[in-house]
């Protein structure tokens, strides 16, 4: 089992709606939520904040202790378990890097059509973001 952590990062958009941060990973040519492996000695929350900043340039704060957990098989016969935290964007300074070449803010009501994996949309809806509670 590979354990990873990431974030559903949101901000208030220009029209007042919520926007979700997605990244494009050129290695897989997909649009997804920022995430990565937990390093030795890190908590899930520490790993999630680090990975979000590494992949997006966003400094964020976790706004909910509860996580959404997704498990899926990898091509290597291992399973990956990702713990997602709900995060509010504080500062963004995206720089293209090895893992992600684009960072895109998408209106929460349109995000499903942009995501490559339906499991990512399940994570977003698990936090009730479509209800605009944040």
Automatic annotation (TrEMBL):
Question: What GO molecular function annotations does the UniProt record carry, in alphabetical order?
Answer: hydrolase activity
Start and end of every Nudix hydrolase domain?
Answer: 1-129
Q: What class of enzyme is it?
A: hydrolase
Question: Which Gene3D superfamilies does the annotation name?
Answer: Nucleoside Triphosphate Pyrophosphohydrolase (3.90.79.10)
At the top level, the lineage of the source is Bacteria
What are the alphabetically sorted keywords of the record?
Answer: Hydrolase, Magnesium
Spans through the membrane: none
Q: Which InterPro entries match?
A: Nudix_hydrolase, NUDIX_hydrolase-like_dom_sf, NUDIX_hydrolase_CS, NUDIX_hydrolase_dom
What EC number(s) does the entry state? 3.6.1.61
The cofactors required by this protein are:
Mg(2+)
Which SUPFAM superfamilies does this chain map to?
Nudix
Which PROSITE patterns has this protein been placed in?
Answer: NUDIX, NUDIX_BOX
Family that this chain belongs to = Belongs to the Nudix hydrolase family.
Spell out the protein name for this chain.
Answer: Diadenosine hexaphosphate hydrolase
Which source organism does the UniProt entry give? Answer: Acidithrix ferrooxidans
């Amino acid at each position: 089992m590979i354990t990873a952590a990431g974030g559903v990062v949101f901000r208030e958009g220009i029209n007042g709606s919520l926007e979700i941060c997605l990244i494009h990973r050129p290695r897989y040519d997909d649009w997804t939520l920022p995430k990565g492996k937990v390093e030795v000695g890190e908590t899930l929350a520490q790993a999630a904040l680090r990975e979000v900043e590494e992949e997006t340039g966003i400094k964020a704060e976790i706004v909910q202790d509860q996580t959404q957990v997704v498990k899926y098989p990898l091509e290597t016969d291992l399973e990956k378990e990702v713990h997602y935290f709900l995060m509010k964007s504080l500062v963004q300074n995206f720089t293209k890097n090895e893992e992600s070449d684009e960072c895109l803010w998408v209106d929460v009501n349109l995000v499903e059509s942009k995501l490559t994996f339906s499991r990512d949309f399940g994570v977003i809806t698990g936090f009730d973001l479509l209800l605009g509670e944040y």
